[in-house]
């Protein structure tokens, strides 16, 4: 999130409240781990590292949506909203632990991923067995611990609320968790499919974007905040109309940054998505344009090199240049702008009061116009 908009997370006790809740979970996990065995203490350290680097974007969308639907800072329900925001951050940590294993990512936010850290420690300690298997196993368990903590924090958030409000918020949270898991599966499936239909590749890519990222990153947090304020179904529908296009634009920006971003800013090596064979809208558009123009060399390069785990810097540069040359980068930028305009038009249609409206507009801009 750009620095100018980071203040949105600092206002009205938001960041302090979220960070305090997360710190309580880390402290509780560390105490439990140490009580079981000193050998378990690295688990708490790893969870703490993952939680330390987040932008708190999802928690901010939740909080300011709550404010937009009548929430008052300092009242009894604010604690519940902050805890719900912490639950979202813990869920994101769980998803990232698992996602990094499935993608075999080497870095996260500029630091080695958890499975790589534990694999390296396995080697350094001269332990028996396969170091990679050990690292992957630990990271999966870390994701499970963060998921357990997320559910605990959401349960505490909803405990003191009126039953209809708690039930509505819980349904949003449960749907989000299920959708992300299914979206992750669809992402894995997409990477196994043959390169024989660019239109179908884009359909699958958009499906993954919406299910795995857009709803979980933006739509569900906005809807959750409104639900915690007791908003009616019409208001929740308005939140969805804002959140889905904005969330899709958010993820499409992420896809562009994965190829064109500065590693010192994104915290990930350039070209990781290309090495992992991510079936993004960007790659699908490039393949479609190369096919339409009869550029068989470009088609062969895209289908043969996207997904090559051994792709070196020159190979990444070649593919990146091809994505630009086919017009795919420009087309995805245009799609982001279309989705952005759709989301902002929907924000205006909701008639949200100040200061929540301005805060949500600024958050929306930060989500789309980012460099990391």
UniProtKB/TrEMBL annotation:
UniProt keywords (A-Z) are: Magnesium, Metal-binding, Transferase
InterPro entries named among the record's database cross-references: Isoprenoid_synthase_dom_sf (IPR008949), Polyprenyl_synt (IPR000092), Polyprenyl_synt_CS (IPR033749)
Signal peptide coordinates: none
Cofactor names from the entry are: Mg(2+)
Would I find Metal-binding among this entry's keywords?
yes
Asked if Magnesium is a keyword of the record, the answer is yes
| UniProt xrefs under PANTHER family | GERANYLGERANYL PYROPHOSPHATE SYNTHASE (PTHR12001), SHORT CHAIN ISOPRENYL DIPHOSPHATE SYNTHASE (PTHR12001:SF85)
- Belongs to which family? Belongs to the FPP/GGPP synthase family.
Name of the protein in its database record: Polyprenyl synthetase family protein
Source organism per UniProt: Cellulomonas wangleii
- Supply the source organism's classification: Bacteria, Bacillati, Actinomycetota, Actinomycetes, Micrococcales
């Amino acid at each position: 999130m750009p620095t100018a908009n980071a203040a949105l997370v600092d206002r009205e006790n938001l960041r302090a409240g979220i960070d305090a809740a997360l710190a309580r979970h880390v402290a509780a996990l560390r105490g439990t781990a140490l009580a079981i065995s000193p050998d378990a203490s690295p688990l708490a350290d790893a969870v703490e590292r993952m939680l330390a680097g987040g932008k708190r974007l999802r928690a901010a969308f939740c909080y300011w949506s709550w404010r937009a639907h009548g929430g008052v800072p300092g009242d009894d329900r604010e604690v519940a909203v902050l805890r719900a925001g912490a639950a979202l951050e813990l869920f994101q940590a769980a998803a990232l632990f698992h996602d990094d294993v499935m993608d075999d990512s080497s870095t996260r936010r500029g630091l080695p991923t958890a499975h790589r850290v534990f694999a390296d420690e396995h080697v350094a300690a001269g332990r028996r067995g396969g170091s990679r298997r050990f690292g992957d196993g630990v990271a999966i368990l870390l994701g499970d611990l963060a998921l357990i903590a997320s559910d605990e924090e959401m349960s505490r958030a909803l405990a003191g609320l009126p039953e209809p409000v708690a039930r509505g918020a819980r349904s949003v949270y449960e749907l989000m968790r299920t959708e992300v898991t299914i979206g992750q599966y669809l992402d894995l499936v997409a990477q196994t499919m043959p390169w024989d239909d660019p239109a179908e590749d884009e359909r699958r890519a958009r499906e993954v974007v919406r299910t795995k990222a857009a709803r979980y990153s933006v739509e569900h947090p906005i809807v959750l905040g409104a639900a915690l304020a007791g908003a009616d179904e019409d208001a929740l529908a308005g939140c969805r109309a804002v959140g889905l296009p904005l969330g899709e634009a958010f993820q499409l920006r992420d896809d562009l940054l994965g190829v064109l971003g500065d590693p010192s800013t994104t915290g990930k090596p350039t070209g990781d998505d290309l090495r992992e064979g991510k079936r993004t809208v960007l790659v699908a558009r490039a393949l479609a344009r190369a096919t339409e123009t009869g550029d068989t060399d470009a088609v062969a390069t895209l289908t043969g090199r996207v997904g090559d785990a051994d792709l070196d810097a020159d190979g990444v540069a070649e593919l990146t240049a091809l994505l630009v040359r086919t017009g795919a980068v420009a087309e995805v930028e245009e799609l982001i702008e279309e989705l952005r305009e759709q989301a902002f038009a929907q924000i205006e249609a909701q008639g949200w009061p100040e200061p929540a409206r301005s805060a949500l507009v600024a958050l929306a801009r930060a989500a789309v116009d980012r460099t990391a």
